[in-house]
Amino acid sequence: EAGVAQSPRYKIIEKRQSVAFWCNPISGHATLYWYQQILGQGPKLLIQFQNNGVVDDSQLPKDRFSAERLKGVDSTLKIQPAKLEDSAVYLCASSLGRGRGEQYFGPGTRLTVT
Amino acid sequence: SQKIEQNSEALNIQEGKTATLTCNYTNYSPAYLQWYRQDPGRGPVFLLLIRENEKEKRKERLKVTFDTTLKQSLFHITASQPADSATYLCAFGGTSYGKLTFGQGTILTVHP
After folding, report:
1. How confident is the prediction along chain A (114 residues), in pLDDT tens digits per residue?
2. Any residues with CB less than 8 A from the CB of B33 and at least 6 apart, and which?
C-alpha cells in the first residue's frame, strides 16, 4: 500500500512570510497527525484530527499556525507569519483508527526560515 | 510537568553485541509505549508497542520491557548489525485517542 505522502520536501522562506504543507494519509486511515521535529529532538504533536474533526491542538501556536482536514482525507498545515524558530521538519502521520495503534509517518517537510 | 528522557544522545557498540537503550519518564502514567526507528531524512518507523500490563515484548532481534515501578522502558537489539544504526525514539501514550509524547531519541551506531 502507498505510504503517507507529503509535499513539498524542502522549503526555504524568509521570516514573516507564509508557507503551507500538504499531507495525504494512507487510504482508509481515520486519524491524522501533524508533528514538528526540531533538530536533535523528538517529534512534538501539533494537531491531531479524527476524520475531519480536531481531537487535540493543545500545542499548536494558534496565533500563527492553522491546519485543516477537509473531507477527512488530505490535510494542510499553514504558518503565517513564519518566525526563525519555526525552522524544523514537519511530519505528517496517520493511523487506522482512534486509539493506541502504530502511527505511519511521511518523509516530512524540512522548513528553513531565514 | 511530564518529562520523558532517553538515557543518552548517542550509543556506540560493536557489531554482534546487544544494544540497550533506556527511556525514563516522570510525572506521567502512560498506558502504553511505542518504539520507533528514524533514519536521516526520513520519518519515524514503528517497531514495537507494549502496554502497561505487559512486562516484555519481543519481535525478531528486538525486545522491549516496561517497568511501571521504575518508570522505565528498556529497548534491546541483540546481535546488532551496522544496518541497525539509526536514531531510536520512545513514545508514551496515555489518552484514549492515541496521542503520543516522544523522547528526544538516541543515536545508535553499530561499528563493523
Report:
1. 689 999 999 999 999 999 999 999 999 999 999 999 999 999 999 999 998 899 999 999 999 999 999 888 999 999 999 999 999 999 999 998 766 689 999 999 999 999
2. B23, B49, B50, B64, B66, B73, B90, B91, B92, B93
- pLDDT for the residue A97: 75
How far does CA B60 lie from the centroid of its chain? Answer: 15
The angle formed by the CA atoms of residues A89, B107 and B16, to the nearest 5 degrees, is: 140
Q: Does A48 contact B at CB distance below 8 Å?
A: yes
Q: Give the nearest chain A residue to B39 (CA atoms).
A: A107
CB B43 to CB A106 under 8 A? yes
Which among B46, B96, B97 has the least Cβ separation from residue A103? B46
10 Å Cβ neighbour count for B70? 11
Please choose, from the candidates A95, A88, A90, A86, the residue with its C-alpha nearest in 3D space to the C-alpha of residue A107: A90
Q: What CA–CA distance (Å, rounded) separates A8 from A93?
A: 15
Q: A99 and B89: CB-CB below 8 Å?
A: no
